[in-house]
Amino acid sequence: MNESIKRKIAAYLLRLLSLKEYSTKDVRAKLTTKFKGDGELIEEVISEFKDANYLSDERYAKMIIRHYVNNLYGPKRIYIECLKREIAKESLNNYLLEEEVNWQENAYELVQRRFSKELMVDKEQRRKVLAFLVRRGFLLDDAIGALKRFRQGTEE
User: Fold this and answer.
1) Is the whole model's pTM more than 0.90, yes or no?
2) Are residue 20 and residue 36 in the same domain, yes or no?
3) Which of 20, 138, 141, 153 could be bridged to 74 by S-S, CB 3.0 to 4.6 A?
């Protein structure tokens, strides 16, 4: 009986992981919801999947970071999102360093995509752009640098 439940848990987990990457915490929550009362078997299956490298918190963390970098979020926002997902702070810093992101370049690209050059003459509009970049998680220095670069491009 236990062996058939364990196979069902493993099959369900394999189906989940075939669709997208999950953290161990997320997998545990999903399996506990679906297979109530089988905590020991769930932990066994999770351990087996980790040993086989089907389930990796490191891969999950890198995927989350890449997702937010590619969607032009700043380092502060990425850090907060990763903490929400309970990614370890130490590994988070390492992964962010591995990405070698030019945050000011990302902020500049975001400003180019989102705002028209005609609006940048108004001081109030520039303040709104800076606030937007800071909300997206960019450091103030990077946001100011991106805005200056954007404005220089408009004056040519």
Assistant:
1) no
2) yes
3) 138
Summarize pLDDT for 94-145 with one digit per residue, the tens: 888 887 889 999 999 999 998 877 766 788 888 999 999 999 999 999 999 9
Contacts of 149 (CB under 8 A, 6+ apart): 104, 108
Q: What's the domain range around 31? A: 2-55
Looking up residue 115, the CATH number of its domain turns out to be 1.10.10
Shared domain check, 119 and 89: no
Q: Report the candidate in 16, 26, 101, 24 with the shortest Cα–Cα distance to residue 58.
A: 24
In the chain, how many domains are there?
Answer: 3
Residues 39 and 9 occupy one common structural domain = yes
Instruction: List, as one string, the DSSP characters of the chain.
Output: -HHHHHHHHHHHHHHHHHHS---HHHHHHHHHHHSTT-HHHHHHHHHHHHHTTSS-HHHHHHHHHHHHHHTT--HHHHHHHHHHTT--HHHHHHHHHHH---HHHHHHHHHHHH--GGGGGSHHHHHHHHHHHHHTT--HHHHHHHHHHHHHHHH-
Q: Which two tokens stand for residue 21?
A: 């990457």
